Structures are given as structure tokens and as C-alpha cells.
């Protein structure tokens, strides 16, 4: 917490406006929309809920297909299943670790031929890194498929000067406890289409028709953010730039410490982009480094340091067994390679320089 959150929560208490919605929710939506420079935003109870709403708004139904990045957290794709639709997973490419335009092109081409074009494409911006937005958007526009940008991990990142999360028809952010700013739990759905966002608010509050009695014509959800939680979000938004600067400094310290180690490659940063460096992640080249990422994670754990593997690709998750998958090329499955070689290092902004140096020393002593 930055310290200012309490002020907004106190306001909610002082006005006795605790219940869902209220001044903090309106304020948080407007302030976030203005921060990322988009026309409209709707605060939700989670990022996952925001993805669910986004898919519903785009008319995804049972029997439809939705394309999704494979190298991501499960929450990017679970809402596809909530709606009874079928995910098709798209591989990563090397520089961004995000969706491969090459694989997407192949998938769209085949879908078009089979008359099974997806209802939406979910593009994820992993660990703060922007996907190759221009190439991916050009393909989706060519095939007329709307994009949902999963920017749960990339709030504050820029692609060619424009905010991550604002490129698709709809974008989502998450304020879960582990994200760059948090409200304890929560999310945001954003779009330049104000009507769509306005309709999302209707769907997120049980889709109650305009009648005196309780009347409902479509399926709704209980997905709105509470006024208390939104108060935390308003305070957190004020420290977002500071958090991004801290995260980048953490990344840069790792980068310079490992610069001379042959076989460690920090996650690259795509040219003309600015990553929030939500997590400092790197890959270990198995031909040059004697420990595997899993062994290193265990060795770090013995030194009381928590590190993690990178996300396990969704196309090899038991839950998605049998789902279609498009690799980067015939010869190469980039996401599986990143999964085998990648490791996420401690990246918390509360970590002191001494603590980070300890992590660096333990890594250097064990590779
Ligand atoms: C955290 C996360 C989500 C889900 O957000 P919640 O607020 O936790 O529901 C979705 N996608 C990605 C890539 C995430 O990291």
C-alpha cells in the first residue's frame, strides 16, 4: 500500500457508502480510464470476471471458438470454458514471449478455410511485456475478428507510446494481490466503445431490466467492484508510476548482475515498448548452465528465496487436453521452450537492495 488508500476508504465510511458502487467506483473508473487514455472503464470484482464479461459482450456462445495465447495464467482462458466455447491456443514467439503473429496467421487462415473463424482473439501481455501488437492487430483486422487484450500483468506498460490494454475492442486489467497495483482483488474492463462498457455494467449487476419489479431477460453476473475496494484502487493508482519505476530498477539490477554470465538471458524488451517489468524473468540456456530452472528454484528455496517457473503453457495443461494448438513453426514450439528454460525471480517492490543482492549471490553461486 502507498498510504493514501486509507483516505478513500475513510471517505466511503464517512458517507456510509460501503455497498457495491458509489463515489470511489466512479472515481476509480474515471481515473484509470484517464491514466491509460481510453474512453470508458468498468470496475469488476476480478480480472477473470472482466474477461468473462468481455467474451460475453462479443457474443461468445457454446460451440464458438476463441483463440488465446498459450503461454499465460489459466485465468486468460477459463472464461472461454464458462461460456461453453472452445479455446484454440496460439504459440509464443522468442522476443516478446507473447503470441506469435506467424502462428496466429496460420490459425486464422485455416479457420477461414474451414469456416470456423473465432469470435474473439485473447492477446496476453506477459509479465508486463507488450505483444507484437501491430502485427497481431493487422491480422485480426484482416479477418475481422475482435481482440480482447489481457493486460492483467501489464498495467503501466507502453507500446509505441500507447498504453497496454487499449489496443483491442476490449482490454482488461487485474488488481489481484500479486499484480503491480492491488485492491486485494479486483479488475477493470476498458474500451473506447462507451456503449459496450455501459452494457457491461448492466451485465455485471445481474442484468436487471428497467422495470419496477425484478425483471431479467438475459443472463447477468454479480461482477461489480465494491466501493471500499475501489477506494484502495484510487490510492494505488497514485503510486502506479512509482511501482513501475521500482519494478524496472529491480529488473535492471538483475540484468546488470547477470550481464556477464554466458547462458542467462533476461526477458528481452521489444523495441519501441516500455515494460512495467511486473516480474523479473530470465531463461537458462541448458547448454551453458549446469542447473535446470527447477533445480535452481529448489536451491533458492533452500536459501529461503522464493522463485517460480514461468507459466505452464495452456495447450499442455490437463484441463485443455485435446484442444487445438498452433506452434510458432513446424520446427519450434517456443512456449514449451520458454517453460523449460524460464524462471521468475523475486520481484517485490518491498525487497531491499541488500535482499536482492542476496538473491543475486545465491543464483551466481549455484549456476
Ligand atoms: C492475474 C491474471 C488474470 C486474472 O486476474 P484476477 O484478477 O486474478 O482474476 C488474468 N490473466 C492474467 C495473464 C493474469 O496474470
Automatic annotation (TrEMBL):
A molecular function (GO) term: transaminase activity
Keywords from the named record: Aminotransferase, Pyridoxal phosphate, Transferase
Positions where N6-(pyridoxal phosphate)lysine occurs in the chain: 179
Listed cofactors: pyridoxal 5'-phosphate
Keyword Coiled coil: no
Family: Belongs to the DegT/DnrJ/EryC1 family.
Name the UniProt record assigns to this protein: Pyridoxal phosphate-dependent aminotransferase
Species for this entry: Lysinibacillus macroides
Taxonomic lineage: Bacteria, Bacillati, Bacillota, Bacilli, Bacillales
Amino acid at each position: 500500500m502507498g498510504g493514501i488508500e486509507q483516505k478513500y476508504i475513510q471517505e466511503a465510511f464517512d458517507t456510509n457508502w460501503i455497498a457495491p458502487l458509489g463515489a470511489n467506483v466512479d472515481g476509480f473508473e474515471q481515473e484509470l480510464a484517464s491514466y491509460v487514455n481510453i474512453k470508458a472503464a468498468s470496475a469488476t470484482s476480478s480480472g477473470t470476471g472482466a474477461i468473462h464479461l468481455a467474451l460475453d459482450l462479443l457474443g461468445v456462445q457454446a460451440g464458438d471458438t476463441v483463440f488465446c495465447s498459450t503461454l499465460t495464467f489459466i485465468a486468460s482462458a477459463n472464461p472461454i470454458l464458462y461460456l461453453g466455447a472452445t479455446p484454440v491456443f496460439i504459440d509464443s514467439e522468442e522476443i516478446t514471449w507473447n503470441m506469435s503473429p506467424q502462428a496466429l496467421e496460420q490459425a486464422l487462415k485455416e479457420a477461414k478455410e474451414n469456416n470456423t473463424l473465432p469470435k474473439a482473439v485473447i492477446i496476453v501481455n506477459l509479465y508486463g511485456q507488450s505483444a507484437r501488437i501491430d502485427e497481431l492487430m493487422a491480422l485480426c483486422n484482416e479477418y475481422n475478428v475482435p481482440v480482447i487484450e489481457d493486460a492483467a500483468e501489464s498495467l503501466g506498460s507502453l507500446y509505441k507510446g500507447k498504453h497496454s490494454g487499449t489496443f483491442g475492442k476490449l482490454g482488461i486489467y487485474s488488481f489481484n494481490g500479486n499484480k503491480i497495483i492491488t485492491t486485494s482483488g479486483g479488475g477493470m474492463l476498458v474500451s473506447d466503445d462507451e456503449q459496450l462498457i455501459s452494457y457491461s455494467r448492466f451485465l455485471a449487476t445481474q442484468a436487471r431490466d428497467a422495470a419496477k419489479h425484478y425483471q431479467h431477460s438475459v443472463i447477468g453476473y454479480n461482477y461489480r467492484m465494491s466501493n471500499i475496494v475501489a477506494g484502495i484502487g484510487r490510492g494505488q493508482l497514485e503510486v502506479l508510476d512509482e511501482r513501475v519505476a521500482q519494478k524496472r530498477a529491480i529488473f535492471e539490477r538483475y540484468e546488470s548482475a547477470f550481464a556477464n554470465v554466458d547462458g542467462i538471458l533476461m526477458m528481452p524488451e521489444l523495441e519501441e515498448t516500455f515494460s512495467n517489468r511486473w516480474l523479473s524473468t530470465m531463461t537458462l540456456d541448458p547448454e551453458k548452465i549446469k542447473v535446470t530452472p527447477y533445480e535452481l528454484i529448489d536451491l533458492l528455496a533452500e536459501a529461503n528465496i522464493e522463485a517460480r517457473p514461468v507459466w505452464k503453457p495452456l495447450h499442455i495443461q490437463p484441463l485443455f487436453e485435446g484442444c487445438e494448438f498452433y506452434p510458432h513453426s513446424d520446427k519450434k514450439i517456443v512456449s514449451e521452450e520458454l517453460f523449460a528454460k524460464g524462471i521468475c525471480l523475486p520481484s517485490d517492490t518491498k525487497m531491499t537492495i541488500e535482499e536482492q543482492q542476496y538473491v543475486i549471490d545465491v543464483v551466481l553461486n549455484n549456476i
